[in-house]
Amino acid sequence: MRVLFAGTPRVAVPSLERLATAAGMDLVGVLTRPDAPIGRKRVLTPSPVAARAAALGLPVIKASRITAEITQQIADLEPEVAAIVAFGGLVPPAALTVPVHGWVNLHFSLLPAWRGAAPVQHAVIHGDDVVGASTFKLEEGLDTGPVYGTMAVTPAAEATSGELLDELAASGAELLARTLEGIADGSLVPRPQEGEPTFAPKLTIEDGRIDWTQPAVAINRRARGVTPEPGAWTVLDGQRFKLEPPKLRPDAGDLAMGEVAWDGKVVLVGTATHPVELIRVQPAGKKMMAAADWARGSWASEGMRFS
Asked: On the chain, which terminus has fewer CB atoms closer than 10 Å, C or N?
């Protein structure tokens, strides 16, 4: 079966690699976002999918939007199906009808849970006990199409959204390959989604701000959910203070919400319930470092407080 692959970030690469070796699959081309400026010097850099596609010797179409011109380029490749994983743009109705089997989306949630751009992040923030991935037939609606298949995992207790997404990207690649094989041999038919949907909009920098008036468990979940992007942070002396997910410390003594305590070994911060322990932090203008090293070099007085 002739397959067009559409994707952009690193988490889409395992699916591209899996389809490149899948029996009966002929990758005819790759659609990805244009090169983007990366790093302090803002060097134009191909997307991870573009770079891997080039290494595999595949034709690459780069586009921020699927215009009529791009739709024609896709049609010229004569794909029978299009597989899409985190492309980063909408597929217009005209393009949806190009492949005879349509577009099959690998989405990192158990649909209809967490429709949208940041399903894994929202699942971690909300403390979901089970997460997973779904393959479904793309429609005009936001992740509303009928589902071909799902796979589920139980997240590790302290997993960040980045770690969990890497895990789902690997296992989801196998789900996508099996889905396309089932479509090719006619054994797989999509079924309508069942249940009440929840939504996972793209996270902003503000979503990473820690609210110390929340319970410790909620703070831990939020910090893990926004790691690595957009990152967890708080405010100290009017400046942004970044931090990696803190550790729950129900055994520690009481502290006021946002109050910072340092005993020469560990750094604790008060919450609405019990304190949390800071592991690594990044003060404004400095690199990420062990919280104890920061406290050792910067401790000014008792009563230090995050806001």
From this structure: C
